[in-house]
Amino acid sequence: MRIERRFTVEGQSAYTGIEFRKTTSEIRNPDGSIVFRLEDIDVPASWSQVACDVLAQKYFRKAGVPARLKKVEENSVPSWLWRSVPDEDALAELPEEERYGGEMSGTQVFDRIAGTWAYWGWKGGYFDGEADAQAYFDEMRHMLARQVSAPNSPQWFNTGLHWAYGIDGPAQGHHFVDFETGELTRAKSAYEHPQPHACFIQSVDDDLVNEGGIMDLWVREARLFKYGSGTGSNFSSIRAEGEPLSGGGKSSGLMSFLKIGDRAAGAIKSGGTTRRAAKMVIVDIDHPDIEDYINWKMIEEHKVAALVTGSRINNRCLGAVMDACQEGEDDTRFDPKKNKTLKKAILAARKHDVSENYIQRIIQFARQGYTTVEFETYDTDWDSDAYLTVSGQNSNNSVRVTNDFLAAVRDDKDWDLVNRKNGQVAKTVRAKDLWDQISYAAWSSADPGLQFDTTINEWHTCPNSGRINASNPCSEYMFLDDTACNLASLNLMALQGEQGGIDIPMFEHAVRLWTITLEIAVLMAQFPSKEIAQRSYDYRTLGLGYANIGGLLMGSGLPYDSDQGRALCGAITALMTGVAYATSAEMAEELGAFPEYDQNAEPMLRVIRNHRRAAHGHDDGYEGLSVTPTPLDHGTCPEPALAAAAAKSWDRALELGEKHGFRNAQTTVIAPTGTIGLVMDCDTTGIEPDFALVKFKKLAGGGYFKIINRTVPDALRTLGYDEQEIEAIVSYAVGFGSLTDAPVINHKSLAGKGFTTETIEAVEAALAGAFDIKFAFNKWTLGEKFCTETLGFDVEQLDDLSFDMLSELGFSAAEIDAANTYCCGAMTLEGAPHLKEEHLPVFDCANPCGRIGKRYLSAESHIRMLAAAQPFITGAISKTINMPNDATVEDCKEAYELSWRLCLKANALYRDGSKLSQPLQAALLDDEEALAEEIADAPRAAAAPVAAERIVERIVERAISERRRLPSRRKGYTQKAIVGGHKVYLRTGEYEDGKLGEIFIDMHKEGAAFRSLMNNFAIAISIGLQYGVPLEEYVEAFTFTRFEPSGMVEGNDAIKMATSVLDYIFREVAVSYLGRNDLSHAQPDDILPDSLGDGEKEGELPDDSARTIAAIQKVASSGFVRSSNLMVITGGAKGNGAAPAETASGLQTAVGESAAAAVTVSEAVVSEVDEALDRVREARAKGYEGDACGECGNFTLVRNGTCMKCVTCGATSGCS
Q: What are phi and psi of 501, to 5 degrees?
C-alpha cells in the first residue's frame, strides 16, 4: 500500500509543530482525598486537563517500563522498527529503585502504539516500501498527538508493551491465527500478540460445563473484562424453565443462568460491580421465558424498593421492641404477657409483617443486657447495597424482534413461544401483550432495548456463513457469533478545513489510514478463545467510526434536529464507509480478500449495492430489503461537495470490490467513544448531541471553572453575530463570576447591610467556583463571628441547612435570581441578549440546560438522526434515545415503531426518571406568570393538561353512595414550607378517625393566577376525598409531577426536595396520613411521633407510640403528630431507649448507648442526605446524570451511547 503524507513532512519529526508542556495529573474524590496523582508528565500543550488525566491515569503504563532499552535485531524488519527489550547491563549500573518505572510522556504512548502497528504492518506486507512504513508511522503518531483520532481503550492499554519495552507475562489462554501459516496457535505470552479488540460477540451452547457451554462462557467473559473489553451473547439456545433434560428431570430455565452470569460479571469486572456494564444479554422474542426476561430488571427494581422500605420498617419496629424491653426492673419486662408495652410493640411489629424470628431475637438480645439495636437500612442510591443485592445490574439487556412479530403486533395476532429442543409450541400469547410488556419495562427501568433481527440480517454481508444473533454491549457491533471488532473514532472537529466544513481530502486520508490500522490490529491480535481467533482471521471485521457530530453541527450553525443537519451527518457517514470499503478492496488486491469472502461474495456485493443506492439518494431499487432506508438527501446537504464525494466513494468501493473482493467483512460502526472521546477532547460523543452548553473545565492545580461549549461562539459567528453580541451572549450563559456590578445584590448593597471590605472579598473569592451565589453566603465564608455579631443571626440559624442568608437579609427571590444569573450564569442561551428566537434550535441539547432552560431535543430527533446515518454503516450505532419524564408507555411504543420503520438496527430508550427515586431532569411548567399566559393562550381543550400535566398510572373506579361530610369543627394541621424559593401553606382537615378529608393550598403571591389555580385544585381534591377517592390514588398520580417552582424544600422536617408544588404537597400528606416514609427524605425514626398532653390520666394511656396516637386521634391531628418535634413526657417513669440509628453493618447491637449518641447519629444521617441531595441537584443542573462515579466518586457521569462515562476520571461502563 502506498502511504501519502498530509500531516507530516518527510525527514521531520512527527511532532513538528506540536507544542508540549509539563503538567500534573490529579484526580480527587468529592471529599478531597486523592485517587490518583502523577507529577511532571509531558503532554501536548493543547490538551485539556481532563484529556491529560485520562492519558495519565488510564493509558500510561504504571510499572515495568525499563529505564534503559536495547534493540532486538530482525533481518526482515527495518532497524528503526526493531522491537526493544530491557538492557540488563545498563540497568545494573543504576540504583535498583531507578531501573523500572512507568510512562511519563505522551510521546512514549504514541510511539508505543503506532510503532507496534507499523511493525506488524511491515511484517504483514501492508506497505509497498520502507518510506511508506515511515510515513504511516509518522502520520499515525501525529494524529494521536493532535487528537484527530483515537483507537479504543484496549489498544492504549495493551498494544506495544512487548514491542516497546519487552514487557511480557504468562499466557492467559488466548489464541491467534499465524498470518504466515494460517494455523490456529495457542499464545505463549501475554503481550507479544496484544489484545486490542474492545467488542466481542460470544456464542453459548445449551450445555452446563463443557467447552462452549454456559459455565465456560463466564470464564471467557472474565478474560475479556480483565483486558478492558466488552462482550455480548444471545442466550436463546438455552432451554426454558421446565423443558426436559436428557438425563431426566427438568431445566431450571434461562433466568437462573442469567442471574449466575450477572453476578460473575459483577465480581470479575475491574472496579467491582457497577450498573450497565460492558456486557450485553440478548434473548429472542419467541423464547418461552421471554416474559420473565422482559420484566427482569423492572422486578429487580421492585425488590430494591422492598428492601429499602422493609429495612426501615424492621429498624423502627425492632427498635420499639428493644425499647419496650427496657421498661421495668426484673425479668418480667421480657414477658409480653406481663409487659403491656412489649406486647403492643410485638403486635405492631407483626402488623407490619416483621419476622417472628427477629422479634424473638431482639428480646433475647435484651435479656443479655443490650439496650439498643441497630438494623441496617438501605437506600436507593445507584451503587448502594440494595442494588448490589439484586440481580440484573451488570449488563445491557435486549430483545430480538422479527418483522413477523411486529406484523403480529400490528394485526393483533397471537405469537408462539417455542421450546428450544423439540421445537414444539410451549405457550401462545397475544403479540400485543408482549409488545406492551416490552414498552412498559423500558418505560419503567430503561431495559430491555430492542434489536430488529430481520433488518440486521437483511444487511448482513456474510449470511451464507450463518445468521447475526447478537451484538457487543453497546449494540454497534453486530456480526456472527464468536467474532471480535476493534474500534477507532475520528474527531470530526479536528478534520475541518480552514473555511469550516469537512476537509474532504484530509478526511479521506484519515479514513484510509485508520482502515489499514484496524486491519493490522486483526493480524497482530490474540483472542480469548479458539473460535474467536479463527473467525476473526476468517472475516476480519473492523469498527471505524467518528465522534463530535453534535459539536460539528452546532459549530456550523445547524440544528441537530434539522433536515440539513441530518443530511450533513448522512454525507459524512457515507463518505467514511465508502472510503473504508474502497481501502479494504485495495488491500484485498494486494493481500487477498478475507478467507470466507468467496462463499459470501454475492450477498456482500448486494449489500454494497444497497449502500451505494442510498449514497446516491435513491428512494427505490433496493435488493432484498423489507424496509427501505433513508437515502442521502443531496439537495438539502449544506456541503454539496461532501455529498458528491460520498456518492463517488461508493462507486469506487463497488468497482474495486467486484474486481478484487474485500479484505474485511465489515468496516464501520458508530461507537459511543466514551473514554477515547475524553482523550480527544470531544464536546460530543459518537452521534450524540451535546449534553450541556456550559462545561466545567478542570484546572491543573485542582478545581474547575465554567466555560462555554467551544462550538457556541463558532455557531454564533456563523449565524452572523458580531463579537460584542457574542461576548454578551456568552457572559449571560457563563456569568461574570462577581457581584461587582450585579443588579440589586452588589458590593454597594452588601456594604449597606454591614458587609466589610474583607467579607466582600471573601464572598468574591467563593463566587469564583460557585454554582449558585447562595453557596457563598454562609458562616464558613464570612466567619461565624461576623454573622452573629454584625449581621445578627443566631447560631441555630447558621447551622440550619435550609437557612437562606440572602433572603433573611431582605432580598427577594426575584432579586436573588437576577444576581444569580449575572454572577453564575444562566447556563443556557434561552433568554440571552441579542439571540434571535429562530436560532435557538441550533443550541438545543439532549437535556434542558441550566436552572431555567426548557428546550431539549425530542426523541424523534434522535431517531431520525440515527436513520440518516444507519444506511451507510456496516455495523450499527450505539445510541440511547433520551425521553423526558412525562413520556408515556405509548411514547415508548411509538419510538420503537418509528425506529423499525426507519430501518434502524437497534434502539435503547432512556426515560428521565426511569431509575428508582432518580432526581428528575427537566421541569414541566414555567413559573406562575408564564403558566397564566400559557393557559390564557391555549385552546380550552388544551388548557387543562397544561395546568395539571401529570403521570397517572392507574384509574380506579368505585361506586360511592353518598358524600361523607366533615364535622363542622374539625382538626388538622398547617404546614408552612418554601419550595424552590416560593412559600406554600398547606392546611388539612380530618375526620374524627384521623382520615384526611380536605386540603387547602395557599401561595405567597396574592391574586396570582397560579395561586387561584392551586386553590381550585385543592377544592377538587377535597371533594374527591369526601366522595371516597382513596388518598393513595392521588399520591400515586401527583408525586413526581414536575413544574416550577421546584427544588429544595425548606421548613419541612421530612421533605427536602420536590419536583413541583404538587409533588411536595402529596409527599407531605402521604408521609403524614399514609405512613409513606419511602417518599420522605428524612429517616422515619427521626420523625416518629410519640405522645402529646399535660400528663393527665397518662397512666391510662398505652405506652407505645402507635397506640398512643390511636388514643388521641379524636382530639389531635393524626397528620400533625408524625412530626419529630413532638416529645414523650413520661413524668418520671423510665423513658424509652435510644432511637435506633442507621449503620452499614447489618443487625448490630450496643450495650448502654446513650440517647444523646443516638440523636447525634441521626443528625449525621440527615446531614448526609441533605449533602447528597445538594450534590445531585448541582450535578443535574450542570448537565450530568446525577449519579456518582463508581471509581472516583464524583457526580460527573454523562450518558454515553447506551452506557455511562465519567468526565472527571474517564471511567466508562462501556467498552471504548
A: 80, 165
> Which stretches does DSSP call E strand in 825-973?
880-883, 906-911
> What angle is formed at CA 626 by the lines to CA 622 and CA 628, rounded to 5 degrees?
50
* Active-site choice (339, 472, 820, 847): 472
Whether 687 and 869 have beta carbons less than 8 Å apart is answered as yes
Please compute the mean of the pLDDT values over residues 39-57 and round it to a whole number: 92
Residue 405 has pLDDT above 60, yes or no: yes
Beta bridge partner(s), residue 485: 199
pLDDT one-digit tens code per residue, 1015-1070? 888 888 888 888 888 888 888 888 888 777 888 888 888 888 888 888 889 999 98
Please give the grid coordinates belonging to residue 448. 430491555
Q: How far apart are CA 206 and CA 287, in angstroms?
A: 13
Nine cell digits for residue 369: 443486657
CA distances from 4 to 134, 488, 820, 1154 (A): 10, 20, 54, 79
Q: Please, what sign has the CA dihedral across residues 891, 897, 903, 904?
A: positive
**304, amino acid identity:** V
Contact predicate 1061/1044, CB 8 Å: no
**Residue environment code for 219-246, b if the CB has 16+ CB neighbours within 10 A, otherwise e:** ebbbbbbebbbbbbbbbbbbbbeebeee
CA–CA separation, 1212 and 945 (whole Å): 40
Closest CA to 613 of 650, 584, 644, 588: 650
Helical pair 504-524 and 563-591, crossing angle rounded to 10 deg: 50
The rounded distance, in Å, linking the Cα atoms of 337 and 327 is: 14
Percent of the chain with pLDDT over 90: 52
- Using CA atoms, how far residue 80 sits from 70, 75, 119, in Å, is 12, 12, 9
Q: Could you tell me the pLDDT band of residue 1173, with boundaries at 50, 70 and 90?
A: low
Q: Which residue of the set 327, 458, 476, 688 is catalytic?
A: 476
From 317, 462, 474, 849, active-site residue: 474
C-alpha cell at 787: 454573622
Using alpha carbons, select from 1070, 1042, 1139, 147 the residue that is nearest to residue 548.
147
Is residue 442 classed exposed, middle or buried when 0-12, 13-18 and 19+ CB atoms within 10 A define those classes? buried
Cell numbers for 175, please give them: 489464541
The full DSSP string for 1120-1183 is GGG-TT-----TTSPPP-PPP---SSSSEEESS--HHHHHHHHHHHHHHHHHHHHHHHHHHHTT
Q: How far apart are CA 1212 and CA 530, in angstroms?
A: 28
Residue 332 carries which DSSP code?
G
Residue (of 930, 1111, 953, 963) closest to 1038 by Cα position: 953
pLDDT of residue 557: 95
Using DSSP's 3-state secondary structure scheme, residue 25 falls into strand
Are the CB atoms for 393 and 262 separated by under 8 Å? Answer: yes
- For this structure, is 1209 an active site residue? no
C-alpha dist (Å) from residue 494 to 226, 567, 646, 683: 32, 20, 19, 12
Residue with cell 414555567: 926
Q: What b/e sequence results for 1119-1145 when a residue is b if at least 16 CB atoms lie within 10 Å of its CB, and e otherwise?
A: bbbbbbebebeeeeeeebbbbbbbbee
State the Cα angle at 774 between 773 and 778, rounded to 5°: 120
Q: What's the pLDDT at 598?
A: 97
Question: Which residue shows C-alpha cell 454597594?
Answer: 748
Considering Cα of 387, then 392, then 396, then 400, what sign does the dihedral take? negative
Q: Quick check: 709 and 803 in contact, CB under 8 A?
A: no
CA dihedral 473, 476, 482, 487 (to 10 degrees): -100
Cell readout for 648 is 463517488
Is 241 a residue of the active site? no
Task: Specify the pLDDT at position 903.
Answer: 97
What the block records as the C-alpha cell of 1135 is 423513658
Contact 231, 223 (CB under 8 A): no
> Does the predicted model carry a pTM greater than 0.70?
yes
Three-state DSSP at 634 gives coil
317 included as an active-site residue:
no
